Amino acid sequence: MNKNVLIVGGSLAAVLVLFLFLGLGKDPRRVQSPLVGRSAPAFALAQVGTGSPIALDGLKGKPVVVNFWATWCVPCHEENPLLLQTAAQLRDHVQFLGIVFEDEEDRILSFLRQNGSGYPTLMDDHGKTAIAYGVGGVPETFFIDANGTIVSKFEGALTSDAIGRELRKILPEGVIR
Amino acid sequence: MIRAAGVLVVILFSMAALADGETPVVSITTPDVERVVGPPRGERLAGEALEEKTHQVSAQLRCPVCQGLSVNDSPAPMAINMKNQVRDLLARGYDQQQIVDYFESSYGEFVRLSPALRGVNWLVWIAPLIALLVGGGVVWIAIGRMRAKPSEQLSSEGIEAAGIDRDRLPDDDALIPYVLRVRELAYGWPGGRMPSSPDASGEEPR
Questions:
Q1: Contact between chains at B81 and A136 (C-beta distance less than 8 A)
Q2: ipTM
Q3: Contact A128 B81 (CB under 8 A)
Q4: What is the pLDDT of residues A8-21, one digit of tens each?
């Protein structure tokens, strides 16, 4: 009996350890969103400052990077210079959009004045766009190809390696070396 | 003359209105729920019924930024936004299944506090039952064995057959009074000595 218990218990423990070990090898920031591979939820949101709307559908034909962020989010501050630099470098190839997550327009404007604004930042209406994109925290960045399909989602502050890797998925070959 | 002046004023106002019309009109649209879950299948709720159903549906959704809290219970802004959207969708006539499906389409199954009964999820529901049955079986067998063992131990024939001397005392003299006291309390032997034992007369066996 004791031997059998040991075998069964040992087998269950081994399976559990195997699952944990496999989980350890995964990057927790690379989350498989159910939206990946599907059409990006359409929106038309007002730009911070001007109030004029920008519609995602109006950008079809050009890859889009949608970055959800807030001024109270430290990792958002960290990735901001990289986003501005990349958006400027790839202006002709990809459209960057920022969407405000649980923040106030005044604070956003103040931040943009202080740190610069290289692409439109949009105010979300009661977080409905964030909900449609399954955003649970910021920063979260969606990479949408020219057909309007979400190709990948990245959680956390983007690094130059990460943004290069994700952009390669939505841009034609050769745009990023 | 007065009429002509009036017409002129109207024309000027119309031109001003047209000029205003040239500035871009902000038409904000949020992602279309109908594109994901189809047209509303339920009835439009309002008042108390709406609030009650909002609580009910929100209680089934997990707050994505909390630790195991439902959207209904969490005070986080994210949860409040989600709850407001649940209320909005119920008011527009979406039913409970459509609303849960909508949130699941963006957050994945994680957003359901109770996993749906499908695919591998069945294991989540069945595993506790199986564990309970297996555990119950193990306990049942263990109790059966425990019941069997004491009867063997208490049977005088068994003890004699095993050659156990219940009246034997320890070698350490300091322990003897305690052992006798325990036997007196446990077996009811007067003075802690077996009544039938020849040593009951007072001679201590070794």
A1: no
A2: 0.85
A3: yes
A4: 889 989 988 888 88
